[in-house]
Amino acid sequence: MGRMVDGQWRPGKVTDDASGGAFQRQDAGFRDRIGTPERPAVPGRYHLYVSYACPWAHRTLIVRALHGLGDAIGVSVVDPVMLEDGWTFARGRGGDGDALHGADYLWQAYARARAGYTGKVTVPVLWDRTDDTIVSNESSEIIRMLAAFGGGPDLYPEALRAQIDAVNARIYDTLNNGVYKAGFATTQAAHEDAVLPLFDTLAWLEARLAGAEWLVGDAITEADVRLFTTLVRFDAVYHGHFKCNLRRIADHPALQRYVERLLGHPAFGRTTHLDHIKTHYYASHRDLNPSGIVPVGPDLPWLALTAGGDRHLM
Fold it and tell me: Which residues pair with 127 in a beta bridge?
């Protein structure tokens, strides 16, 4: 974690003394939109900066694939290890460089977009090539913007929006962000305050999906995309690395079937890179794992459904 200070990336703590040891997520700094007269949904105009490791960026890759936008929106993948320089465009561990500007660090794209920017430097980033700036770095809004290009399923149907919003709200607070609140807590109380609601939500989801294929309605929605990116990382990193170890996803039969079924779809399976995921969390969070050693396991039953299986990048 960190912020821009005087045009440079500066690492920072994920908590502060006023937080009582609880993880505090900062708001996104860019919240513009596409699909407007000023920013039409034109193929070739926009570019995504992503990390395969990041669940928030993974959302955008899945929706890009579901809408068939592989040729319309380019992608640059950062290096999976994020240390004192933040996200970098180093090559050699699966990153493929900055296709637009040849930058070395993601913070340089933020500085290019807004002089004097002092907010967080995160992925995903949706870049406007015409205006040479960042449109948005808020994943929940980016995935809805991509619908402006047409094609693919309606992930946010009007008749189901209230239900989707309610499900998203609970999953975000207690699970998507809950794993971070548990993992980055610096007091026992803050950790338990995050872990217990997290597993209550997993139990609620297990019951909900025991008799249904989808979270809301009878077809895939954005709620499924937003849930999947946390579930697919859970047993590999959140269970051990973030100490969310009351139960695994493998201990929830309905959730396990749900993950495996989604991984069977190319938009999910081909965008899931467990090698990047494990390398990022274990090698980047040196406050939690000072050695940077990436564990060999776990031996997940669905590894063959992911992109590249379980290659190690270290």
Answer: 47, 134
